[in-house]
Write a structure and sequence with these properties.
about 190 residues, mainly beta, Porin, nine-stranded antiparallel sheet, 1 helix
Amino acid sequence: MRFLQNLTYLLFAFFFCTQLNAQTSFHHGLGAGYSLSSTTYVDSYGSYESIVGAPGVVYSPRLAFATGSNSSVSVNTDILLGMNMTSSGLGTTGYFVAEVPLYAAYNFGMQSTAETESTFGGYFGLGYAANIVGTDYETIYNHGPMVSAGLRFIVRGKSMGLNLSYIHPMEESVDYTFSGRLLYYFK
């Protein structure tokens, strides 16, 4: 918990300093994503790894503070919610996912500021996230520090993005949580 408190203080100081002479812009996107978590169970018979994932819909709002004509720092979230059903000879299984990160990012090139005219860009961000991936018979909950990175580009005249994130597990039984997203940016 001390880590989260220190991260909050650091983010506040960082954004307060950048806001003093910064131009602020709001950007957002909508798309699809996939979240994948692994957990290890240990019992008297041995250890078992379980990997659970599910696709979802992503909404990605971002408040950016310009640091130059082609760069910014921002407060981001990429909320991912979804579910999936699979059928086999053993029956039907339902999967669900919910992921809510909050992170600070350095943006460059396309979509970094409201004025940039670049057709390619990206970002790198650090923050904290919570993730739940589950099925009819198990639920994997993870939260912890996260790292996220992505690229922004033009496809047929439309502003698109692709990003990946990793949540470092704070839960003892969780091995990892990865997620990826493909986004269409409105602004």
